[in-house]
Specification:
By secondary structure, the chain is of the alpha/beta class. The chain is built from 13 helices and twelve strands. Helix 6 links the parallel strand 6 and strand 7.
Length: about 375
């Protein structure tokens, strides 16, 4: 789209906000802030943002329209005054990584928007001196994995970040973990799987069998790439493969940079291969075999926490009682959506590249 002139620039969300502030006439930053804003960001793949802004003294901010209405936000402020001291935040990321615009995520799902909000809150909380990312995920959406990786790298620039792997931290789960300063895993953790996969259900035969006919009107070559009513021809298969190769190269490149390895050396351990935690240590994909408790101690040490520090566990907001009730009522949109998610297991969400294990693995 960039090459075709349909869009102007490729940036991560935080760079977009910075550009929007500039366009709206925000005050130009000064000193170190100005230098940081103008500096190229190799992780974002852009060339920095010009700090020259139109004259004026306006200040542009981004706030939730209903945040001030939530009484529990005020209770959190009171809790900070009542229980001072350094904190190590344990951010829990458990489940399949999915694309979602919702501000909440059901259990068993890691969604970019709510987890990004949580990471931002942790990054800007002065009481939090270090962060542990507890990952237990087979991966999922490639786009969501990359957006979360970016937010974790932003967090890492401000505070120590340590990753602790649970039973599985593979593909997209490894994508999140590799953003940390140091990675801990259990000896039997399933990790690695640095690779991508894409696929779709082709249901034309099923529709014909049950006597249903579907007419699809599409415009443009390849517009039916992820249509469930037609298969892949030679052209669409080649186009899908090119998408996979672009994302795979980016995944490997970022993993090599995070792990401070040469691209070709790390790529030998990629290609979708999975490793136990012990094997991953031997290949430089993980730093140490250690428990969550060991990861918390490491984070506290890196954060320079004073005596009396404590660890707190944080998770994203989950759907409330009404949302869960809707999902249990037969015939409701919530129930249909839940059934569709269970059937597809994320494969048809957006129909895009998946950074995830293409199978379920159980060790008995």
């Amino acid at each position: 789209a960039l090459a075709a002139g349909m869009i102007d620039e490729i940036v991560y969300p935080d760079r977009w906000r910075r550009a929007l502030r500039k366009r709206l006439g925000d005050r130009a930053p000064r000193g170190a802030e100005a230098r940081a804003a103008a500096a190229p960001d190799p992780e974002a793949g852009d060339q920095g943002t010009d700090t020259d802004t139109p004259p004026g003294n306006r200040s542009v901010g981004f706030q939730s329209g209903v945040g001030w209405l939530r009484p529990w936000d005020w209770l959190e402020h009171l809790e900070r005054w009542g229980r001072p001291g350094d904190l190590v935040a344990v951010v829990v990321a458990s489940g399949q990584i999915v694309d979602s615009d919702s501000s909440q995520a059901p259990r068993g799902r890691i969604a970019a928007r709510p987890l990004t909000s949580l990471l931002t809150a942790v990054r800007t909380d002065p009481r939090v001196k270090a962060v542990v990312l507890r990952v237990d995920s087979p991966g999922g959406s490639g786009l969501a994995s990359d957006l979360l990786w970016r937010e974790l790298r932003r967090l890492r620039k401000k505070k120590p970040l340590v990753a602790s792997m649970g039973g599985t931290a593979a593909s997209g789960g490894y994508y999140l973990s590799m953003a940390a300063d140091r990675i801990f895993a259990d000896a039997g953790t399933i990790t690695g799987s640095i690779g991508v996969v894409a696929g779709k259900f082709e249901l034309s035969g099923l529709l014909e069998k049950v006597g249903l006919r579907q007419e699809v009107f599409s415009y443009g070559e390849g517009s039916g790439l992820f249509s469930m009513s037609e298969g892949l021809d030679e052209h669409t298969r080649a186009r899908l493969r090119s998408q996979l190769e672009v994302f795979y190269d980016a995944f490997v490149g970022k993993a090599a940079a995070c792990r401070q390895q040469e691209h070709d050396a790390l790529e030998q351990h990629a290609r979708g291969r999975i490793w136990t935690g012990q094997q991953a240590v031997e290949r430089g994909l993980v730093d140490e075999v250690g428990s969550l408790h060991r990861a918390i101690e490491e984070a506290a040490e890196r954060g320079g926490c004073r005596a009396g520090w404590r660890a707190i566990s944080l998770e994203v907001d989950r759907p409330g009682l009404w949302s869960r009730a809707q999902g249990m009522l037969p015939g409701t949109r919530g129930a249909l959506r839940a059934a569709a998610d269970e059937l597809s297991d994320g494969w048809t969400e957006g129909g895009q590249v998946q950074a995830r294990l293409p199978f379920d693995l159980k060790i008995l």
